[in-house]
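User: What would this chain look like folded?
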Amino acid sequence: MFSKSRINEPGQKPEGDKPKTTETPTVKPQMDFSPSSSKGKAVTSVLSSDLTVVGNLRTTGDIQVEGTVEGDIRAHLLTVGESATIRGEIVADDIVVNGRVIGRVRGLKVRLTSTARVEGDIIHKTIAIESGAHFEGSVQRQEDPLAQGRPAVPTSAPAQAPASASAKAEPLTP
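Assistant: Here's the prediction, encoded as structure tokens.
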């Protein structure tokens, strides 16, 4: 009626436990833990809207700021989000300002969108200012705006007054 299985008998090994000599070795998957920068473009670092940074930021990569930064920023591409506020100097190859910057802006390509609010001088190689952008300060074109230090004032031209000072109207008295 019932037969005893041969698997449990002493002295015999079950079929599944015999070593297999014809089986090909399994190849373990290669895990690549190398940094992403060696493979291509690095991911943009994002500072969220609930984040406040007090201090300077420096990277060779890209930064998108949505929060508040109280300090200087140096990057390859800097995007200032609509909700962002930066108090300090920003220096980058490409700068896109959608939010508020209080301080000097230095970049090869600078773009102020219609929601931008900039209070400070802009030193650039190329600039684009959309209609509706608020800007208070001076604009100066330089061949290399990323050079360290304060830009030299050309000797052939007089010093330029800030745009905000020249735009103020004085009331006329009769």
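Residues 33-38, 150-174 have pLDDT under 50 and may be disordered. If you want, I can go into more detail on any region.
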